[in-house]
Prior knowledge:
Blueprint: E1 12-13, H1 20-29, E2 33-39, E3 50-53, H2 54-59, H3 61-67, E4 69-72, E5 88-93, E6 99-109, E7 114-127, E8 131-132, H4 135-156, E9 173-189, H5 197-205, H6 216-231, E10 236-246, E11 249-250, E12 256-257, E13 260-267, E14 270-271, H7 272-292, E15 296-298, E16 314-322, E17 327-329, H8 343-354, H9 356-363, H10 367-372, E18 385-386, E19 388-390, E20 393-394, E21 402-405, E22 415-418, H11 427-448, H12 452-459, H13 482-485, H14 488-495, H15 502-506, H16 508-511, H17 513-520, H18 527-559, H19 571-588, H20 597-606, H21 610-636
Parallel strand pairs: 2-7, 18-21
Antiparallel strand pairs: 1-6, 2-3, 4-5, 5-7, 6-7, 7-8, 9-13, 9-14, 9-15, 9-16, 10-13, 11-12, 16-17, 16-22, 19-20, 21-22
Helix pairs in contact: 4-11, 6-7, 8-11, 8-12, 9-11, 18-20, 19-21, 20-21
Amino acid sequence: MLDFDIDKMLFTIPPESHDCREVRRILEEHPEVEFVSFVGIDMGGHDTDEKIPVRAFLEDMEKLLEHGVQTDGSSVALPMIADLGNAKVDIIPDKTVNWYVDYNYRNVCAKYGLPVGTLRIPSFLVHNETFECGSRSILRNALRYMKEELRRELREHPYVFRYIEGADSVDDIDDFVVTSATELEFWVRTPDDKGDREQLFIAQTLKEQYWKRTYGEVRTALEETLLILDKYGFGVEMGHKEVGGVKARMNNGGHYNHVMEQLEIDWKYTDAIQAADNENQVKYVVRDIFTRHGLDVTFMAKPFEGVAGSGEHTHIGLAARRKDGKLISLFAPRNMKEDFMSPVGFGALMGILKNYEVINPFISSSNDSLNRLKPGYEAPVCIVTSLGKAVDKPSRNRTVLVGLIRDVHNPMATRFELRAPNPKSNTYLVLATSYMAVMDGVKAVLEAERTPKELEASLSKKYGEEDFYLEKDREYRSEEDVFEYYTEEEREKLFGRAPATVWENLEAFDRYPEKIEVFNRGNVLPNILFESYREQTLSQWKLELHDRLIPNTMGFIRSCRKRHTDEDFSDYDIKNWLEIDKIRHEIAKDTITDKSLLTQAKEALDARQYDRASALQLEIKRRVEELTALYTRYKKNLL
């Protein structure tokens, strides 16, 4: 339980309180906040944490808030920008968003009876004093570009206001409001406990865990987390069990062990940059509170094979604030009972779908993330959307990449749910690339001056049909379960083949240069930043495959030992073991004449033969899955 008074703690300093006098007053009233940290986000999505004692911060606050602090750029992920020979990077505070206090719940100050806090200030990374190079800057610039372009397009094509409720012209609009939100799924478990893959699969299939009541330490940690998140003003909507997990056991001390559960926490939407900042802070609170109760937390996309992974569905919306202050949805149609969306909404969705091949590398940038995107685990593999069977029958299709969320009685709820991101996705870049694609589609639709009915027909086009914007040999909409209704061959033909490795995903950058150009507009993602991101992702893939996945696979191979004895075996056991041993040697054992798959993969990476390394990675994965099934069958037959 929380053994301190959270009502006495400082959680948020809002933008309107960021002048130096007010910041000083607030910090002096909350002496439990003993440090200040400037938080920049690099191209790998990692954040900086440079703790400055509050005393030193207050002594030089004006200068620090204006010019930030310096860091060694070679220690952050900014390849091709900041290296050992040119490493000067400044971390410049962002005064336009909420600043959050991050509390150390394991370090309670005896004097005040409260945890020691660090004021975390979201910041921009600037190389050599002029070049902004972090993920937050890219998102900010993407939003700035989109708002400018959207206003220009609406002015040049006023026909669209016939289909938008609440505004008759662009002159009625004071500003555009880009709304976003994420949902956080994660696994918790007691340390050192390993999940039984078969039991996890059975529990998932029987839906024994979904939305069930939590128990013991998990319940306490979840409740404390929700209470604390609400203090930050995130507008927590719910926390609940997800589909994965098995029932825990109680030990003699009255505590639960063998905990293995998947949870989800949802909170309200906000401005896109603030939404990404909020998500960072939510993860810190989740990890801190659950570990305080002796529970490990993982935000991996696919921590356990054979069961559902963890997604982070990202919601994308767009509104306009009229000059009288009222908000109106630009995605919703004038008549919710006649059309699914306005032309702006259709254009936004079409832009994401058309350009998704080059958005995907920013969303699924790790081996783990691609392991999650498989048929049968409530994760998307096809570039396809669902609108609903009819305007009055909202979509409930969980097999698509992007779903339209709408409420006939609440136009402001109209938005898109992008289902591919995971908790390790860099949300700043997910949103930046998505909104750039949104603007590409909106621009094409408005310049063609298409009506909602015409755009619904475009989005519903069949394979081989020409369209003014979407590609001829593709389909983009399905109201069916795409895993059940289509064969794998049909899915790949209609919706495109999903990349299976990080390298395959990165290859889209070379296959679709015309789509990459969408990100270059407005200098939002100039070539140097684009190449920096590609180099960071490629380097991460190589290192992880070479120095983590291959050694881990070798460890698994060595664990698959002969278990039967000379006194206790059958011919069936011998047959199974011979098959197992053959695969073990093919994967991991070198001979004078032949090299194992693991060795071949390492040598391909060392030689920068990435096509070959990628193909070998898939072959190793296939053979390991085959070995796992055989070894499980073998063990089950032993007495």
